[in-house]
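Incident log, structure service

09:12 report received: a user says their structure output differs between two submissions of the same chain.
09:20 pulled the input from the user's history:
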Amino acid sequence: YFWYYALKMFDSDEGIEKIEFESNERKYFDDFVVFYKKESYPKNYLNNSISKEFFQIKYHVRNTELLSIGNLINKKYINARTSILERLKELNKKYNPDDIHYIFISTDDINPNDELYKLISNEEGQISLETLFDNTTNRSKMGKIRERFANHLNCSDDELKEILTPFRFKKGMTKEDLITRINDKLTLHGFEIIKPSSNLNKYCQLISKWHSKNQSTITKEFIIKECEDEGLIKDYGTIDNFNNENLNRMGILEFFDQYKCTKNEKEHLLDYLCTIRVKRVIKEINDLKINKKTV
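09:34 re-ran on a clean worker, output below:
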């Protein structure tokens, strides 16, 4: 997941300034942290400007568990000394919850029979505070959840609401889908792709190298230099000249990702787009000929 977000630094409209991973200075949700440029802070559904996003990844080769309310307060779920909610509470003491997201990515599905399924919004993956704090008594379903969370954190309802506000849940991708998306970005920006048939992933090796050297802050310029040293740059022109054509290609790739297009669907859509483009060029040529005749 680090590389999926690191490559977004090469997309000018993403506005990412730098990424930190496994920094010794940070605790909790520290698999990596994305920092946005001040002039490019993204907005969330509350219209708050977001300065940084903290990520915690929980990946399973096989889906053996469904995510439930209990997992948020069970420290064993993340194999740690503190639960997800306890970590959110500690982070809330240090950072302003209005301009930060704490994103938990898990390959586990949410149990459709658990109340958490009703609480996680499809908008940004946030806990729906309107649903949880529905003005019902502690005897109601939502009231019991509020009480359970508040007792676990030893906090009031108002404090609980503040603690939960920056939390986001995202469903993790399969390894194959993740590599496909990363390869789309690598191709787009002129880097060598990750070969699915190879067990040797030079991009993962770079992360291990940086970690061993305590190099936790990663910028676009640093990635270019490191990838150049490893012979991973394929097209310098693409990296140095990210223009409108690149943006159009990026839009198409993101369309493929969003709608999970099959290989055949991608080919048909590209053929269709090429046809439209050719027709447009022919029309422009004909218009040019007509204009020349009238001059």
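09:41 both user submissions now match this output. Likely a transient worker issue. Closing.
09:42 reviewer note: Strands lie at 16-20, 32-36, 52-58, 100-106, 167-171, 217-218. The longest helix spans residues 263-294.
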